[in-house]
Amino acid sequence: MELLKGRDPYLQELIRFAVCCRALTLLLQAILLSFFQALFNLLIPDHAADAFSPPRLAEPGFCDLLLEGLLGGLSRWDAEHFLFIAEQGYVYEHNFAFFPVFPFSVRALAEVALWPLQWMLRLRSRLLLSAALLNSLFSVLAAAALYKLGCAVLRCHRMAFLAALLFCISPANVFMAAAYSESMFAFLAFSAMWHLEKGQSWHSGLLFTLASGVRANGLINAGFFAYSRSKSFALQLQVGPVLVRRLPPFWRQLLSLASSVIFMCAGIFLPFVLFQYYAYARFCAPGTGLSQSIPKPLLQLALAKDYRLAAMDRLKPPWCSQRFPVLYSYIQKAYWNVGFLRYFELRQVPNFLLALPVTLLGLWAAWTYLTANPRHCLTLGLERRRNEEEQGEGKPGTGFCCPAVLVYVVHATVLLLFGVFCMHVQVLTRFLGSSTPILYWFSAHLLQEHEPLLWSEGTDKETRASLSEKSVLGNSLAGSYEKGISENPVVSLLCNYRLNTPITKCILGYFLSYWLLGLILHCNFLPWT
Predict the structure, then answer these.
(1) Residue 375 falls within a domain, yes or no?
(2) Which parts of the chain are coiled coil (predicted)?
């Protein structure tokens, strides 16, 4: 795989760290679930949520119960939907809120790679194990893709490395391990962005298309391709008069731009359109009485919970008669009360507080970039910079505030504002943590700006002279950090946590505390997702 090619010492250390973090997450989940769940249930009883909990159609065996005891914490909340879809397909109307690529991938792995285990594990258990294995793989690959993307955009290997390490301890870590689609989406989205930065439009378009079949917010990634092509077109118009004569006519360039953008965006939207058409055929087309093929326990659940089945009693749901019968938007409004300002209620204050750290971090990142590059933001990055090609690492053309980061800041800000005003805000941490690199790039930027332990030789000598003990550690860590062969900066900062600056303590504290808090709350069915 091109993503893992080469002998980059940063990449090798990153993969080791990512594997260790994923193993630690699974181990902590098993410990919390198996040994301390009784204690947590006394202190924090299971939340009495009206969560989706379909009946088990096959009696579990000893190995199934053992696996459930070890990995059962990964199957809570939305994970139940994904596992149910992987096992039974799209049975209920609200199942269509979850896109098909991830559950079908889980089913494929369970049926192919884990087929030898069928004599000891029921299908449901194999699906759970398959989801854990897939997400472990995708989370490691997503970290590698984020590192490659950071190298291409930030043009600073050290910051890209640090940002990818922070991704491994993401506040949304529990959702990267559970049977959710976040890890797969992060891998596809970051990989697509990286290929686009390298000029590989077809590879990028294919990955973006797959990503839009994993999560609905993958549709907004079409903006990356549209911006990339528009920027190239705008910069071509600003070349000198000699080069202008060598370019194709303006109308031909404009036609090429429009056709390529329309074609690629249509490809990215295709999975969503096909999925909605499939839903329409299931629920709105005449003569699709599929309720007879559904197992009786699932029919009983539908009656008990008032879940709508496909063409049940030949009554079409109300969304079928809409001008644009899009089931996804109907489900979000009817089942989850998602909409503009619908979540702004007094009883949701705890959830807003839960999303406050990631909200502040995202707004701080946008403000930092805007104040550092006001003209670049005002011109949308479409103005040719004379010294663009003369800037090297360590100059304004590198790092978080470099010109290439603009489109990622806009993307992250749009997602943040949409999440705050139109979504359940408690999902904002995993929503942003799996969709945008900005949270990790900006956190790495703050650490490098404010943490002397990460400063290289000759940086802010007066500050380090006033902190003798810190200076020795800083020189040692920065030297190895420059070489990229021995020290892991995140591990070193944690080992010297007492000496860290307040900003470093806040960032690391936020990442690690939400990692642990997510494990505790998710394993105990508390409202965290």
Answers:
(1) yes
(2) none
How many domains are there within the chain? 1
Alpha carbons 503 and 137: distance in angstroms, whole number? 32
Of 86, 90, 91, 89, residue with least CA distance to 75: 86
- Give, in degrees to the nearest 5, the angle at Cα 212 between 206 and 214: 110
Note if the pTM is more than 0.85: yes
**CB 298, CB 95: distance < 8 Å:** no
Per-residue pLDDT tens over the stretch 234-268: 887 776 554 555 556 766 777 877 888 899 999 99
> Are 126 and 68 spatial neighbours (Cβ–Cβ below 8 Å)?
no
d(CA 245, CA 227): 25
Per DSSP, the three-state class of 309 is strand
Distance CA 529, CA 474 (A): 38
Residue 493 lies in a domain: yes
- Number of CB atoms found within 10 A of residue 272's CB: 18
Cα 529 to Cα 48: distance, rounded to the nearest angstrom:
14
Residue 418 lies inside a defined structural domain of this protein: yes
130 lies in some domain: no
* Owner of token pair 């997503």: 142
Q: Which domain holds residue 371?
A: 346-387+398-455+489-524
Is residue 366 pLDDT above 80, yes or no? yes
Distance of CA 182 to the CA centre of its chain: 5
**At residue 48, does pLDDT exceed 70?**
no
Place of tokens 């790092």: 399
Q: CA triplet 49, 51, 55: central angle to 5 degrees?
A: 125
CB proximity list for 377: less than 8 A, separation 6 or greater: 369, 370, 406
Name every residue whose Cβ is closer than 8 Å to that of residue 121 and which is 6 or more positions away in sequence. Answer: 61, 63, 64, 67, 114, 129
CB 49 within 8 A of CB 525: yes
